[in-house]
């Protein structure tokens, strides 16, 4: 795993003990992420993807299934640095992950991560020749986690508008894996 560093922010306090476990607590139940690559024309391209990690895979990497024919795989092969963003607006949790991606040829890992939902995209199953297993080795994550309910948030924002002092709206922190 790597070292971790917590960081305080104006929007809240982090106690300096941010850990990979904190990251997984925030993203574990968010099924979809926006996976961003740099396209050949230099532009950033984001697409919704389903994180395939199971509880046993909550370490320093994310797993995704992608089409070998699709732009994301081509983009990753040209430029492996990616960003993966998670959002849970109902819980006011947001996470931005940076890392390095690559296609991994590991049929046993594909089998371990496989689900019926993946079969909707890859009807030939784990042996679908179009199926690419993509590993993202996490280098850094930044998160925003608001604990207050909506009424308290509105109160804090109103108070900040009146006093001219920024509101404390939860915590923001960093997790460094490498």
Describe the structure.
- The protein is α+β, with helices and mostly antiparallel strands and 178 residues long.
- It contains 5 helices and 7 strands, in the order αβββαββααβαβ.
- Strand 4 and strand 5 (93-104) form a beta hairpin.
The outline comes out as: globular
Tell me the fraction of residues in β-strands, as a range. Answer: 25-35%
> Low-confidence runs (pLDDT<50, min 5 residues)?
1-17, 151-156
Structural Rg = 18 Å
Number of helices: 5
Question: Helix and strand succession?
Answer: HEEEHEEHHEHE
Which class of secondary structure composition applies to the elements? Answer: alpha+beta
Helix content: 10-25%
pLDDT average, as an integer? 81
| Total strand segments | 7
Give the end-to-end Cα distance, rounded to a whole number of Å. Answer: 8 Å
Sheet with the most strands, sense and barrel status = 7 strands, antiparallel
Write the layout of secondary structure elements.
Blueprint: H1 20-27, E1 32-38, E2 44-50, E3 61-67, H2 71-78, E4 81-88, E5 93-104, H3 107-113, H4 116-121, E6 131-145, H5 150-163, E7 171-176
Antiparallel strand pairs: 1-2, 1-4, 3-6, 4-5, 5-6, 6-7
Features:
24% helix; globular; alpha+beta; disordered N terminus; 178 residues
Task: Give a summary of the structure in a few sentences.
It contains 5 helices and 7 strands; from the N terminus they run αβββαββααβαβ.
